[in-house]
Every structure is written in structure tokens, then in C-alpha cells.
Amino acid sequence: MIGERLSEIRKDHGDTQIRLAEQLGVSLPTVRSWEQGKSSPSHEMLVALCRRYQVSSDYLLGLSDVDPAYVQRRRLEQFTQEELTALKDYEAYLLWKRTRKAP
Predict the structure, then answer these.
(1) Both ends of the chain: CA-CA distance in Å?
(2) Residue closest to 71 by CA, chosen among 16, 8, 14, 24
(3) What are the DSSP calls for 43-85, one per residue?
(4) Please, are residues 17 and 28 in contact by the beta-carbon 8 Å criterion?
(5) If you ran DSSP here, which 8-state letter would residue 27 be given?
(6) Which of 49, 86, 93, 96 gets the most CB atoms within 10 Å of its CB?
(7) Dist. CA 1–CA 47, nearest whole Å
(8) Residue from 98, 6, 1 nearest 52 by CA
(9) What pTM, to 2 d.p., does this model score?
(10) How far apart are CA 14 and CA 19, in angstroms?
């Protein structure tokens, strides 16, 4: 499971296997081995991968089918900066509106 997820997440971030290997200080065959399911990253490498891609270890390990933070980031990437600003403004308005309601 980790190999499939790692490959998907790496590609979503526009990383190559070579770039990931260089960033983590491991060999290209090591990254390939992880993605092919022939081996698994060490605990330290798992932590580094989760931090690099801002994904939960539960999701990367296949213990959870959804990482809400990862899904949210992917969804937000679809918006322009102007649209993101409008979303934040609307969120602030809704929170303000909630506090203004009479009990």
C-alpha cells in the first residue's frame, strides 16, 4: 500500500523519483523499491516523507483511506489566488454573522 500511495503523492507534488531520492539522501533504487513494494522506508524516512508531502502516516501506510488535510489541500489548489481570497472573506463573514445572531 505504501508504494502506491507514495507514488501517487510524489507525482501529485510534481516530484520525480530522482528528486525525492536526492532530497531524502537515499539512492534512486531505494525509492523505486519503496514504490514497487519490494521494501519499506525506515521509521525516519517515513517521518521525512510525511513532512515533505504534508500527509499523515496513517494515509501513507494504508491504515486510512482518506487524509482530510491532503484532500483539502488538493481541492484548494484548484482555485486562483483571487478565489481563495474571496473564500476566506466569506468564511470570515459567516463567522462574524454567527456571533451577531441573537440568542
Answers:
(1) 50
(2) 8
(3) HHHHHHHHHHHT--HHHHHTS-S--HHHHHHHHHTTS-HHHHH
(4) yes
(5) -
(6) 49
(7) 16
(8) 6
(9) 0.69
(10) 10
